Amino acid sequence: MRNRILFFATALFASFLVAIIVHAHGGGTPRLVNELLDPYRLSVWTYPEPPQVGELHVTAALARSDTGEPVTEPAIMLHAHGVSRHDDITATMSHDDAATPYFYEADFEVPYAGSWTIELVVKKGDWEERASFPLTVQPAPIDKNLIRLAAFVTFVFLGIGWWFWGRKPRKKRTRKRIFMPRPDD
Predict the structure, then answer these.
(1) Residue 65 in contact with residue 42, Cβ under 8 Å?
(2) pLDDT for 53
(3) What share of the chain in percent tops pLDDT 90?
(4) Which CATH superfamily is domain 29-137 in?
(5) Cα–Cα distance between 136 and 48 in angstroms, integer?
C-alpha cells in the first residue's frame, strides 16, 4: 500500500515538472545578424521557433559599427505587417524584461498564420534607419497545457476508481448459527 502511494506521488510530481513552460528572454532564432544601420549594427532574434499564431517574442541588440560596443540610447519601434494593409501591429521595444540591459525586447500577439514582414525602426534624435525581415507564421498548435490537464484529471479518476473498486474485498464476518431442534418434534 505504501509503495502505491509513493508511486502515485512520484507520478504526480513528474507530471507537474513536465508542465513547466520556459519563456525566452534574450534569445531565439536569429533573423538579422549585424545588419548595418550606419553608425550601428542591428541583430534580431524571434521566439518561438517556428513562429506560431499567438505571442511572438522579439529581441534586438544594437552595437556601434566601428567598435562593436553595445549601445542602449536609440529607441526601437517594431512594426509587424501582415498580408492585409489593415494588419499593422506596432510595439515599442524596451530593456525592461531583457536578459541583459543591452537587449531590446517586445512581445506582441500575431492574430493569424501566413506571411508577415517585421520592420524595426531605430531612431536617435533626427537620425532614423529601418531594417526588416520576412516571417512565416504557422497555425496555432494544440494547447499542450490543456492536454496535460486532461491527462492529470484522467489519472486522478483512475486512481480514485482503483482506490474504491480495485482493491480486494474484505471478508465479511458472519456469526455461526447454532441450530437446535424445535421442541415440537
Answers:
(1) no
(2) 92
(3) 50
(4) Macroglobulin (MG2) domain (2.60.40.1930)
(5) 12
Sequence-distant (6+) residues with CB within 8 A of 128 are: 121, 122
Integer CA distances (angstroms), 115 to 18, 82, 134, 170, in order: 32, 6, 7, 66
77 pLDDT above the threshold of 80: yes
Which tops the pLDDT comparison, 77 or 10? 77
Q: DSSP string of the chain? A: -HHHHHHHHHHHHHHHHHT--PPPSS-SEEEEEEEEETTEEEEEEEESSS-BSEEEEEEEEEEETTT--B---SEEEEEEE-SSTT-EEEEEEBSTT-SSTTEEEEEEEE-SSEEEEEEEEEEETTEEEEEEEEEEEBPPPP-HHHHHHHHHHHHHHHHHHHHHHSSPPPPPP-PPPPP---TT-
Domain coordinates of the chain in residue numbers?
A: 29-137
Instruction: List own/partner pairs for 29-32 with CB under 8 A and 24 or more apart.
Output: 31/118, 31/133, 31/135, 32/120, 32/131, 32/133
As a whole number, the mean pLDDT across the chain is 82
Q: Does the structure show a pLDDT above 70 at 51?
A: yes
C-alpha cell at 21: 513552460
Lowest mean pLDDT among 46-55, 77-86, 134-143, 171-180: 171-180
